[in-house]
Amino acid sequence: MTTTTTAPTTTSTGSIPTTRRSRRSPIAPYVFVAPAVVLFVAFLLVPMLYSVYLSFRGLRLMPGGAFGKREEVFIGFGNYVSALSDRDFLAGFGRLAIYGAIAVPLTLGLALLFALLLDLGATKAKRFSRTAIFIPYAVPGVVATLMWGFMYLPLTSPFSYITEQLGWGTIPFLENPEIFGSVANIAIWGGVGFNMIIIYTSLRGIPSELFDAARIDGANEWQIAWRIKVPLVTPALVLTGLFALIGTLQVYGEPTTLRPMTSAISQTWVPLMTIYRDAFVRDDLPRAAAGSVFLAVCTVALSVILLRLTQKRAFGES
Amino acid sequence: MRWRVMTAAGALVAVGALLVGCSGGDSSGSDDSTAGGPVTLDYWAWGTAQDPMVDAWNKAHPDIQVKHTDAGGGTDSSAKLLTATRAGNAPDVSVVEYQTLPAMIVGDVAADITDYVDDDLKSKFTDSTWGLTTFNDAIYGIPQDVGPMAFVYNQKRLDELGVPVPTTWAEFKTAAQAVHTADPSAYLATFNTSEFGFFAGMAQQAGAKWWSVDGDKWTVGIDDEASQQVADYWQDLIDNDLIKVEDLLTPQWNQEVNAGQVLSWPSALWAPGVIYGVAESMAGQWAMAPLPQWTPGDSKVAYQGGSAVVVTTSSKHPKEAAEFAAWINSTDEGAGIQLSTGQYPASTLGQTKAETSDPPLLMPQQTDFWKLASTIAGNTIPNISWGPNVNVAQSAFQDAMAKAVQDGTPLRDALTATQKVVVDDMKTTGFDVSE
Predict the structure, then answer these.
(1) Domain with residues A83-315, CATH architecture
(2) I need a labelling partner for B237 at 20 to 30 A (CA). Which of A63, A178, A190, B358 fits?
């Protein structure tokens, strides 16, 4: 509601407004945003800052004989040096790279493929397929991992049962190096549905005149998919790729839940497991804080690199 | 205009009230008792013996009620105790394994209860048992059960295969060979890379001292000669495919036990209760014998596991907590419940009572079980000392051992790696460690 008249009510700002705007700057937006901001500050910002603070502290022994008590003191970059020179922690990143190289392309590739197939006019049973592909995402992570775990264990695996009947022995799902594929499989199984929905929605937003024009020009469905659809959904692909990358860096649930079932997964298989071990098994919360700060910085750095690289492709139009 | 502001303000107030209301639920450890009114204590413990003991106490003591929570096994619950103490919502009383007790003291979790232990209570346990919970002349816990190591085996299958029960580790190897040759799908035992307590017990039986303290100076001997001898022994068995490398008590392992493919579990006196929990149908087929020895004719064994009840530093009612701990661990009723669920009591009263009790449910046919148990308990190595960072050692050991088995590198190297991590950690924390 705007007004350009008169003096008696505008007391706060003495100057005459040069543009049309309301005489009182609206506070409603701030009020609506306030709860979100409060929650963000309380549950995200403050803990993050506390983590950074904690990463510069350490638990050291206070004098008291052979069995003194430990107290928290400031130790500068000690935790960072210790975390970054921990071979297990760094090896975890290496394993993440292998896991990511399997999981991310397959998840996105399959999601794209299914989205394209669902978009084709000729596909039957679209609604059923959409739901069926999406349902794995609805299964809670721990449940999914346990279920797959039993399908991997030699004694309870249906796949191993078949190969055993055929005389080929059991499939070594839970040994090194097959374990990477096994863990990645759980993530792919759960992630394809979600990513497919994003890409499919993006596909649905493409005006169909483009396809009609292409068909008139003689393009077949394969060419339409490859040369028109895929380039036009690149922003969605970049988005899902970014999510997949962040998700890969933070993988924790699947290896931890599978760990009791196999000796191929150590306590420090991925960086987050090392951080958990430092925090709660080794009782060294500050060192865990340093590890998580490092992991967060890596995640942000990689995301920025990814976005920069794809900026032109994805958002170049605007 | 005006109403928009008022609606906005009203919404803000509503959200604020919601937030305040939601933050109300706070779970403090114990109720405060203003004059009169029962005191409620929080008790963390695992195992089947706990609920009956708590029920018995609650019935007998209406003015001090105890709430029992199962916070997970030894490793899990001690990790939780450390974080809960920092968060300020630790329980009043908790069960802590002997090996973790020093870490609990250093982490300021276990309170000094020397003042609450009167002469009467002191007389209920032997001096060497008190040694398990006494450090620097201060008592930090009341011993609940002890786990002298013993050999629990599938008697029926071994008899079928004609394999004699081994009395030395050399005989154990021969027996393992015989079992695997007679039945290629069966193994005499499994080697578990995460059983830190078992390996430590075997090393101690061989004469190793993993931690020792002289005044203020610590010495760490995780990779000393005796421990490496143990590592080489198991290495030999693994390399010759005489025992299976597998984690204990997984669904896979449980199935193999039930199918007669894992024929023994060298562990401790509490093992029958655990095996009964996963293989009830095998009652009557298993038996217990003394643990094999390194030297023929010897009879010394170490402890594996066993725990004490500590009063936490966060407790607002330490006196009542200590009373509860003393009652469940040293009275006749408590001991009876311990025995019926397969725990071997730490109290002398309990151990005497044991000799006239029924054998565990897994081996009703072994009527001399408790007599044998008391002989074994009498042969335990005295004064085993644990260090202030057993949790670090355990996690380093598990990782190093699993890695060694995965990569095929010697178990000896895993011990050396563990030693390094433990020494470094102690030095970083500020302990005086001699090389």
Answers:
(1) Orthogonal Bundle (1.10)
(2) A178
